[in-house]
Amino acid sequence: MNAHVAEWKHGEIKELVDFITKKKVVGIVEVGGIPAPQMQKMRNNLREVGSIRSARNTLISKALDEAEKKVKGISSLKNSITGQSAIIATDANPFKLFAKIKATRTMAPAKGGETSSHDIEIKAGDTPFKPGPIVGELQKVGIPAAIQEGKVVIKSDKLLVKAGEKISADVALMLTRLEIFPIEIRMSLHAVFEDGSIYQPNVLDINIDEFIGKIKQASSNSFNLAIETGWTNKLTIKPLIMKAYNNSFNLAMECKITNKQTVKFLLSKAQANMLALKNKTT
């Protein structure tokens, strides 16, 4: 029996090693507490960038040790294995992977007993409820409700649950009735390996569009500075030659220097001046 179990584990480790080493980028994600329907949806959403493989943490750790023989440095991902872990493998860059995983986060109703990850505030305004016992139920959980003009309204903003506090069953039920879903369901990307380097979430959590915009602006600014200072390289040489040509042409026109480039323009300018003078004298 033990030999059978060991053989089964050996086979799974081999499959994990193959999974890990076939892609350029490998990450460790925590998937604990994600209900099956949401997990399947997240897998589907991530399919365009990568694949996820779940396994026991001990097997993932052993697989990373084996993968180290083929991919140097990848075993460092073992330090990021916590909770219920899974491996994600992709050819996308780590920043795109992080952004894609972040985009799969969804909000779910509270059931009661959960710890709120953020302040839960109820805003003042109309509710979808008709006047009745609901007013007392809202007040019971601390929501300042009242009936105004035949409607159940919340009279003022109310911080119902602070970040780090438990959500009671009564509050959870009322939040659901108000269609407020405060529980974030998400994968947590603990670390990503690419080309010998390990990237942590605090490095990967950037606004990609904003970052690319800054790079484009920096590129534009540096190009303009190079043109302004006359710094020649393969990107600036053509614009600098064109700028020099335009400057010399304008100078020649200003000084009335005739050559094969300026003569037609000088004659046109002289004719225009002559016609303008003629119009003034008639």
Q: Please give the radius of gyration in angstroms.
A: 34 Å
Kindly identify the CATH topology of the largest domain: Alpha-Beta Plaits
Helical content stands at: 40-55%
Q: Sketch the major β-sheet.
A: 5 strands, antiparallel
Order of helices and strands: HEHEHEHEEEHEEEHEEEHHHH
Backbone shape: flat
Write the CATH architecture name of the largest domain: 2-Layer Sandwich
- Count of individual domains: 3
Structure description:
- With 282 residues, the chain is of the alpha+beta class.
- The chain folds into three domains: 2-105 and 186-206, 2-Layer Sandwich (Alpha-Beta Plaits); 120-182, Molybdopterin biosynthesis moea protein, domain 2, CATH 3.90.105.20; 211-281, no CATH class.
- It has ten helices and twelve strands.
- The strands form four sheets. The chain has a five-stranded antiparallel beta sheet, with helices on both faces. Strands 6-8-7 form a three-stranded antiparallel beta sheet, covered by helices on one side.
- A hairpin with a 2-residue loop joins strand 7 (145-148) and strand 8 (151-154).
- Helix 1 crosses helix 3 (57-67).
- 17% of the residues are buried.
- Mean pLDDT is 89; it is low at 1-5.
